[in-house]
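Complex 169.
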Amino acid sequence: MIVLTVLLLAVVLTCVPYLVTIALAEDPATADASPIYGVTIPPGYKQWELIAPAEEAAPLDELRAVIGNQTALDAYQAGKLPFPDGAILVKRAWKRKQSPEFASATIPGEATTVQVMVKDARKYAATGGWGFGRFVNGKPVDEAQHRTCFACHEARVKSRDYVFTKLAP
Ligand code: HEC
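Predicted structure with heme C bound:
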């Protein structure tokens, strides 16, 4: 009996580190976070307010909507830069589709990407205070793509706290 107990204990103790590893690897907070930045898709973002729509020409042919959380919206409305910590901007994108009911109307087709910028001046000091994430079907894209984000935003809109989109009139 004692031998059996010791044996059982040995098996359990051997397994624990593996079980912990598996649990950590499948933690949704890490599996769904962007490389480099660790940014995730913010819950409830589909209910956020519109900052501005945008359209992308061929070859992407996309309709887009930039939306923001309350912190971002307050900063926009106050016209204050830089954006405060906690501001989040999300760019939703869809394939452009002709309306089946009305030929001249363009409507959203399938969703393509969700892109996120999160402001945390200290955590993301090396990239203008912004953390970036690009997601396809809810999963973050690879590290190489995440290396392009800040460079483009920095080159063109550094003077506007690295943000392209202005509040639509
Ligand atoms: C080659 C240039 C370029 C690159 C690279 C780029 N962006 Fe942008 N981004 C833009 C432009 C232009 C806009 C303005 C909206 C539009 O036209 O789609 C924008 C807008 C955004 C917005 C809305 C806030 C704003 O600045 O207007 C987010 C969020 C965003 N991009 C995230 C990302 C992420 C995440 C990456 C990297 C995976 C990335 N971007 C890479 C050009 C770029």
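The chain is about 30% helix and 30% strand.
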